[in-house]
Write a structure and sequence with these properties.
The chain is of the alpha+beta class. Among the domains are: about 45-170, Potassium Channel Kv1.1, Chain A (2-Layer Sandwich); about 190-210 and about 225-255 and about 290-313, no CATH class. It is about 35% helix and about 10% strand. It is built from eleven helices and seven strands. The protein has helices spanning about 40, 75-80, 85-90, 120-130, 140-155, 160-170, 175-185, 190-205, 230-235, 240-250, 300-310; strands at about 60-65, 70-75, 115, 250-255, 265-270, 280-285, 295-300. The strands form three sheets. Strands 2-1-3 form a three-stranded mixed beta sheet. The protein has a two-stranded antiparallel sheet with strand order 4-7. A two-stranded antiparallel ribbon has the order 5-6. A hairpin with a 5-residue loop joins strand 1 (about 60-65) and strand 2. The model is unreliable at about 5-15, about 20-30, about 35-50, about 95-105, about 215-220 and about 260-290 (pLDDT under 50). This is BTB domain-containing protein.
Length: about 325
């Protein structure tokens, strides 16, 4: 007589495919209690897939990632002190990951925070927030300044940083005033809009520049709006700015009558007061009533236009 196995015994009999519990784990399965691997250990066996760290910004309990995959280390307290969004993000309680120190309890080592900017812009941003008196490097292009300004707007940075970025954006827009004007219209920044108009002047308002030729193996930059036709760049403005720009620049119309034949009748009359034998010609212009004509837009002086430009009114 064979012994009946107890209910707690573990069966070693292999399950068949007809068994309803075939795809279920056996009782001997144990949960994986190992801590999640960090980024360094994940790619340690495959150097080609290893992420690239910034040479200077590589320490901190927060990992940020640029669009090219470069990783940046940052301190949470610096980010929270400079940005309202980061402060609110770090104030949200997060579960503690097993094996990580308490200071990194909200950091997901396998999924850094994607900043959606280039590594240069992210480096510039971290340089601004890591010092007591922030300052911008010289020579930034308008495209770089708009990317940096957009990042500051997205994360709602403090005033001391905005006070550096905004003037830098206006200064960079001196070479591309139409780009600055369109940017200001999307943000509804009236001060920047008036600055852009003062930069371009009446000639730059309608002038279409020629794209510079290829030189030294580098092609000309045709991305700025000054190379595009007037109405193409004009329609990039917000509707309220389009209306304000036209009504301010052209406040009134002038009627130009059609050209008609001018009959000049010269009659010679002898004046009593004129010397004897002399005659005085009196021209007579008979144009008749103006039956047709056209209206033309008359632009005010550029200074008045810039001063009176106000889309909010």
């Amino acid at each position: 007589m064979s012994a009946i196995p107890s209910s707690n015994a573990i069966s070693t009999k292999r399950k068949t495919m007809n068994d309803p519990n075939f795809d279920r784990p056996g009782k001997t399965h144990k949960p994986d209690t190992n801590p999640p691997a960090s980024l360094d250990s994940i790619f340690l066996s495959d150097p080609q897939r290893s992420p690239k760290w910034h040479p200077y910004h590589s320490d901190g309990n927060v990992i940020l990632r640029a669009t090219n995959g470069t990783l940046f280390g940052a301190d949470s307290w610096r980010l929270a002190k400079a940005s309202t969004v980061f402060k609110d993000m770090f104030d949200i309680p997060q579960p503690i990951s097993f094996g990580y120190p308490i200071a990194s309890r909200w950091v997901n080592q396998e999924q850094p925070i994607d900043m959606e900017v280039t590594s240069f812009i992210l480096e510039t941003f971290l340089n601004l927030i890591n010092v007591s008196i922030p300052s911008l490097p010289n020579g930034l292009s308008f495209a770089q300044m708009t990317a940096l300004s957009g990042l500051c707007d997205k994360f709602i940075v403090t005033k001391n940083i905005v006070d550096q970025v905004s003037p830098g954006l206006v200064l960079a827009g001196a070479n591309d005033p139409w780009d600055l004007l369109v940017w200001a219209s999307k943000k509804n920044y009236l001060f920047m809009g008036r600055k852009a108009l003062s930069y371009m002047g009446p000639e730059g308002f309608t002038k279409v520049h020629t794209i510079p030729p290829v030189s030294s193996g580098r092609s000309g930059d045709g991305s700025t709006l000054k190379y595009k036709p007037f109405w193409d760049r004009f329609h990039l403005l917000s509707p309220s700015w389009q209306i304000a720009l036209l009504t301010t620049a052209f406040p009134q119309r002038a009627f130009i009558p059609a050209e008609t034949a001018i009959t000049i009748c010269k009659t010679k009359k002898t004046s009593r007061n004129s010397p004897k034998g002399k005659s005085q010609g009196v021209p007579s212009h008979d144009t008749g009533p103006a039956k047709s004509g056209r209206f033309e837009m008359v632009m005010v002086s550029w200074h008045e236009m810039v001063k009176g430009f106000n889309p909010r009114s």
